[in-house]
Amino acid sequence: xxxxxxxxxVLLASCNRVPELKxxxxxxxxxxxxxxxxxxxxxxxxxRVWVADTIFTNCQGPxxxxxxxxxxxxxxxxxxxxxxxxxxxxxxxxxxxxxxLAYGKNFQAxxxxxxxxxxxxxxxNQVTDQGLHLTKVDGSLEHGTKFALVDQKSEVRGYYRxxxxxxxxxxxxxxxxxxxx
Length: 181
What we know:
This protein is α/β, with parallel strands linked by helices. It contains six helices and seven strands. Helix content is 37%, strand content 18%.
């Protein structure tokens, strides 16, 4: 009987556990261009929780699947006003705002919630490599396949594999926690 009580207490405690979200780095200041042609800076995202990934619109590899998974995340958190999704292009030469807008429409991305960003390779690299630690924008089109969670103070708080269902569920849970819901 004591064993059952202890096990029950442990299970209940784990259900109410606050996620351990350490600071994994700070996003540097930036200014990029969205799929709608608007300038977007780090200040536009401060005070918001956001999930970032790196993609390019002509990708025949993981990008469409990553974007599809990100679409699922976006749907799960659509009711949270202070949450954004941010997809950063690793191919700024071809990924114009128009190309990003068309790509986003293919995935039913709401531009008010989901930003597809492009700009100068140097600026993109500062965000994707030095800030998010996901990939370098160096013309190779090689890029990481993780999602990064960023808090209201522009600190990276976690990395998640988009092809792992449990990690995506954890991401949504962590977003809700950081967003206060």
